[in-house]
Amino acid sequence: MVVEAHSGKIFAAQNSTVKRPVASLTKICTGVIATDWALATKQDLKKVMATVPDSVTRLGGANPLNLQPGQQISLSDALYAALLGSDNIAAMTVADHIGRDINNRRGKNDDPVWAFVKEMHELCRVLGMRNTRFLNPHGLELPKQQGFSTAADMAKLAIYAMRRPAFAFFVRQKSRTISVAGRSYVINNTNQLVGEQGILGIKTGQTAPAGPCLATSMDKDPVIRAKVDGTKGATPRRMVVVLLNSPDRFERTRSLLQTGWSQYDNWLDAGALVQDRNREILPVPKF
Q1: What is the pTM of this model?
Q2: Are 216 and 253 in contact (CB under 8 A)?
Q3: What angle do CA 109, 113, 118 make, to 5 degrees?
């Protein structure tokens, strides 16, 4: 899916509504829920310390920060690890902490991670992501936790996520140094495109069932045009590309960005006409 974020104009779509596992692109939703929670509750992510839950022992796989149950990490550092380094244990730690807070505020005793995942479901609902089902905050395919989405739905989520300044700040970092249990770690962004002109993130993903996945956002300077009344107006420009199961995801994204911008410029020069909104526009609610 290739779409200009501000207009919603679709410039390329192939199998974009086919349901597939999306691996760690799931963490886009995790990051949005976490940063929106911090804004709503007036919490400073740098100051809030989360405890690594016992449930992480069931995840398996890589543990680059050597996180152990009972250790503490700031929510901001956990989000850097999850969003830049795609750390699954960090994502679980974020979900567990925020899920517990949600339960406390609502007087409930649900499983904290599931309470967090239900917020992910609610975001998908309001964004119109009808072909998406997240079953955990990290994107691993586990027994009874095999989620799915589509390129079109993930593009909606990416557009919404990049509207959130706090989220966008995390994913645009090329690297970040964080601290856990008195040790420092450098977290490098797994998105090789970050740092190239205009690239603002946002997330990679890869598992055996999902294949290599990539969601990318790129800005260009606004187009300045004269209005009828003689004043000038600025048209912002942001292209979002989502690839699922794409072996050459980085080069393919570069190519699709170039194609998308070329088509966008031609479309804008022709008057930005839309003949069939249902086919040509990807709707993403603004709130």
Answers
A1: 0.95
A2: yes
A3: 85
Q: How many H-runs (helices) and E-runs (strands) does the chain carry?
A: 8, 9
Average pLDDT, the chain: 94
CB 38 within 8 A of CB 167: no
Separation of alpha carbons 146 and 55, rounded Å: 17
Q: How far apart are CA 1 and CA 22, in angstroms?
A: 14
Tokens of 199: 């690239």
**Which residues make beta-bridge pairs with 50?**
73
The per-residue b/e assignment along 56-95, b for 16 or more CB within 10 angstroms, e otherwise, is beebeeeeebebeeeeebbbbbbbbbbbbbbbbbbbbbbb
Q: Specify the CATH architecture of the domain 2-280.
A: 3-Layer(aba) Sandwich (3.40)
Residue with tokens 């955990």: 136
What whole-number distance in Å separates Cα of residue 230 and Cα of residue 216?
36
Count Cβ atoms within 10 A of the Cβ of residue 173 and give its class: 0-12 exposed, 13-18 middle, 19 or more buried: middle
H helix intervals, 110-213: 112-127, 151-163, 165-171
DSSP, residue by residue, 115-137: HHHHHHHHHHHHHT-TT-B--SS
d(CA 287, CA 47): 27
Cis? peptide before 187, omega within 30° of 0: no
β-strand 2-4 against 10-12: which pairing, if any? Answer: antiparallel
Domain boundaries, the chain: 2-280
The whole-angstrom separation of Cα 26 and Cα 215 is 11
Condensed to tens digits (0 to 9), the pLDDT of residues 91-135 reads 999 999 999 999 999 999 999 999 999 999 999 999 999 999 999
